[in-house]
Prior knowledge:
There is one protein chain. The protein is α/β, with parallel strands linked by helices. The protein folds into 4 domains: 4-205, Spore Coat Polysaccharide Biosynthesis Protein SpsA, Chain A (Alpha-Beta Complex); 219-298, no CATH class; 301-576, Alpha-Beta Complex (Spore Coat Polysaccharide Biosynthesis Protein SpsA, Chain A), CATH 3.90.550.10; 588-621, no CATH class. The strands form 4 sheets. Strands 12, 13, 14, 15, 16, 17, 18, 19 and 20 form a 9-stranded mixed beta sheet that branches. A 7-stranded mixed beta sheet has the order 3-2-1-4-9-6-10, with helices on both faces. Strands 5-11 form a two-stranded antiparallel sheet. Helix 14 (339-347) links the parallel strand 12 (326-332) and strand 13. Helix 7 runs parallel beside helix 8, helix 9 (222-237) runs parallel beside helix 11 (269-282) and helix 18 runs antiparallel to helix 20. It starts with a strand and ends with a helix.
Amino acid sequence: MxxxxxxTINKNNSAGLEKTIQSVIxxxxxxxxxxxxxxxxxxxxxxxxxxxxxxxxxWICEEDTGIYNAMxxxxxxxxGQYCLFLNSGDILLxxxxxxxxxxxxxxxxxxxxxxxxFLQDYNVKALPDNLxxxxxxxxxxxxxxxxxxxxxxxxxxxYNENYNICSDHExxxxxxxxxxxxxxxxxxxxxxxxxxxxxxxxxxxLLKEDEAIFKNIFKNNLNFINSxxxxxxxxxxxxxxxxxxxxxxxxxIFSILDNNLNNNLELFIPELKFNISKLKKNNPVLIKKVFxxxxxxxxxxxxxxxxxxxxxKNKKIQKKISIPKISIIIxxxxxxxxxxxxxxxxxxxxxxxxxxxxxxxCSTDKSYILCEEYAKKDKRILLIHKKKNEGVSIARKTxxxxxxxxxxxxxxSDDYIESNMIENMxxxxxxxxxxxxxxxxxxxxxxxxxxxxxxxxxHDDFIDNIKLFVISLDSKSYLWNKLVKRTIYDKLMFDKHxxxxxxxxxxxxxxxxxxxxxxxxxxxxxxxxxxxxxxNKKNESKKYNEMxxxxxxxxxxxxxxxxxxxxxxxxxxxxxxxxxxxxxxxAFKNIVKRIVPSLFWNYLRKHFKKEKKILxxxxxxx
Length: 622
């Protein structure tokens, strides 16, 4: 008998199904069986299944009554000790994922194994080691990241087919708190799941089903549960500051919930309602914050951005300002030495139909004052002053969210552009209907020596472009020499980490772009500023971690979205990983590099002959 049963359910998602199958059959472990339950798809799903039939242990194509009816079919046809539900569109993270999970299972016997998981922005959501009821009331385990002992379904019950979205939520609450089932928190990240699935697009139904589940499970304490959920949401979900007294009260309720599930808790309702009303009186801005967060909770991000853009456009129309063809976004942070040169180069453009959005990221020098003066002089300049320093990536995102141009151009505040840059790039991108266009640039070093950097022309293949623009060591994955269609920017995911965020964004731009253009003219002046984020020697550990974070995210993006073989990237990937390992600030050699020059180099320079200094330099730095 196999240890694991991987069950995939599918209906009319042939593209997602093939990605899922490929991620399963490439696993290094063979201690699993693979089952596919198809709900009578009328697309190419059956053809995809037949294509990989020799790697599938069991499959069926027939009508079902819903998601959980299909899952139950999979369970009944499974023979493994544990079940993992990896539905079409979900993928196992690495080829050795199942092998690593099996090692943890053998070392830590339990009935349910769950792991942390990736959010939509590819950040990891950490789950608690101790699953309390107070946690599962407001959050849940994902079946894509949970291995469940098959005997639990047989002994207790299969998934409740009366629900379409939340039956697994009901299953986990019953198993953990009524049947006292053992569970274990895995260290291995298991999968990357499809955020276009049924539950993510039917949030209203999800809430209604959750209410029905609570009504069924907490029959004796339903009023208390509803009151407590309301109190909890006001305090924690909407992140409103509360007194220590209120915080202690919440912890008290948590303790009661977790330890007295079957007792009657209705006696606490008057006190709970009193605390809710008290909280409202102590927070005059509560209603505004709750309303704002309800919007964030229920309206999809893309729709919010779209509505915000419409609002900004209407606002500009009301001010009798026509919508510009190009939005220029300039993040500004402590750039008072360079910002005037940068803005002057923008205002001197031969092409004038643009808006310039300056995003001040809480500068501590005169940058904001200088930007303010320019904004007063020219109506095309919009100045945004952020209340919190969040880095260049979030500053760019803020600028984009407040823009309305058909094309987007990013410029760094310590650089400047040729007077004909926008005109030349706009004429080419609009005449040829391109998705984005890039140009050559001038490189200014610290001695102000200027070099014309000639870039390679793009390729027709996505993977070849990834090698050219992103992964190779000499890649030029800059945002500032690219004019990009707004429709491409609408799809981008911005990351909060600053170092290499341009690699992550460039990867997405390349993926979503069908037509690319190249202008072999040096139209941008890049200034190698020693105080810039990438050149600053301070916080080496933070920079290194940000590089690793963004590099891993771009690899995840490619793996999840690109459905062809990625073996062609392996040589460049290996080189890049070695380069990153060398940059690790915690490596002994790099610690020596930082310490030796600062403490001893002046002494060595005075007392050693030239030949010995060269030898010592070679030993230390190599």
